[in-house]
Each structure stands twice: as C-alpha cells, then as structure tokens.
Amino acid sequence: MNTPRLEVRAVSKTFTVKLHKIHALKDVSLDLRKGECHAVVGESGSGKSTLGKVILGLLSPDEGMVLFDGKPVPTRRTLPMKRSIQLVQQNPLSTLNPKRTVSASVIQALKIHHPDLNRAEILVRFEEVMGEVRMPMDLADRYPSELSGGQRQRIAIARALACDPEIIVLDEPTSALDVLVQDQLLRLLSELRQRKQLSYVFITHDLGVVRQLADRVSVFQRGEIVETAPTQDLFDNPQTAYCRELLSSVPVVSEEDLKFISNLHAKT
C-alpha cells in the first residue's frame, strides 16, 4: 500500500455563532495516497467544506494537524506548499477574475508559481495546459462571462494544473453542471489523475458521482466521519444506518439512460 501523501490527524474545528458553539469537525482523521481519489461525502453542513479549507490552510484547526509526506503542515502555507495543494471550487467564478481573460487568469498562476519561466516558456506552458483540459486556443482571449459553465470549470482546472500540483481539493466541482457536461468533466478529471498521478480530495453530496470517480469514501455526519471504506465496499455493504439512508437516495440509472448518455458522448 502506498504511503499517504496527505494525512489529517484528529482534527477538530469549532465556530461560535451568536454565542452558540458549532462543532464543524470532531476528531476527524483520514489519509490520501498518491494517485488516489478519496471522496468526502455528506449532507450540507456536515463539515465537508470545512475539512477542505483546513487541508488548504484557509482555516486552522483547534486541535489535530495536517501532514504532507509525513511532515506537519503549518496553517500559513509557503508558496511551494500552496503550489502542491490546489483548489477547484463549485463555482469557477469564485476563482476566475471576471475582468481577466482566460489567458490572463492562467498565465497569472504560472507567473506566481513558476517565477523562473521566461515569457516564451510561459506561453508554451499555457498552451499545454489548455490542451490538457481540452480547451481550444481560440477561447484564450474570452472572459469568463463569455464561456459556458463547463468551459469555465475547465479553465479553473487549467489554472490549478498550471501550478503543477500533487493534490487537488475538488469542492463540489460538478454540482452546478447538467448531467452530460458533468459526465464529461468527470471523465477528464479521471484521465488527468491517471496521466499525471494526481491525488484528489473530492468533496460532494452526490454518491452517484462518487461511484464514478472515487477509490475510497469517507462519509460525514455532523462533523464526524461515520464510515470510511473502498467505494465498491461502501456501495455493496454499508455498515451504518446513515450510509444506508444516503445510498437509498442515489438515483437508479436505467440501461436506456446509460445508452442515451453514451450516444451523446459519441456525438460530442
């Protein structure tokens, strides 16, 4: 078994809202191996996104720690650490500056995280990243508002890839997309992971998406992990009533639906 690239050890986080304490995370531990997709699943408010922010260093835990390659990671991240762990959010407009073109947004990331590259090298790398997310270069001068939702999300992924990360935290990256575009994006993420040996922390409430992409799943309920298992094991034999309840709500896709989606892929 691969040594974990990322470890979350006994992390707790509490917020105070109008004098009431909210336990967003309670003694949470999980790990992520090289090339693995570890899904974090749960209802809204279960602590999934709080965990993602702790991993990224956007929040500091009250207790516990995050380790990268076995070494504790400080909340205040160095530039190399920021480069190593990148974020793709649900809404790409949160990442992309509406006043910057596609090329300006991606090139800015290249300049920040690869200051040793000259202008010619930056342009070459920009073209490579656009190719990796299958975006045509004739969109380079467009603004986010001129792109579709799926195109914007591909540019957000390109911006993350421009940093040459080892880990990407994907926070509900497909939930705002229609079924066909969602499926295309999941296929792209899967291909990128295999080709570049990326590791994903995939935060979602959608177990149908998890089944398509994840190797392992941690299920959250009220800030705690109630079950962690390989994806197929979780679907075949959930150990807790909460997991069984979540699985019962996953839409069943018929053979006709699968054929329809497959035919759409053949035409796109």
Automatic annotation (TrEMBL):
CDD domains: ABC_NikE_OppD_transporters (cd03257)
Transferase listed as a keyword: no
Keywords: ATP-binding, Nucleotide-binding, Transport
Residue ranges occupied by any ABC transporter domain in the UniProt entry: 6-247
Example of a GO MF term: ATP binding
InterPro entries assigned: AAA+_ATPase, ABC_transp_ATP-bind, ABC_transporter-like_ATP-bd, ABC_transporter-like_CS, P-loop_NTPase
GO biological processes: transmembrane transport
Protein name: Peptide/nickel transport system ATP-binding protein
Originating species: Shimia aestuarii
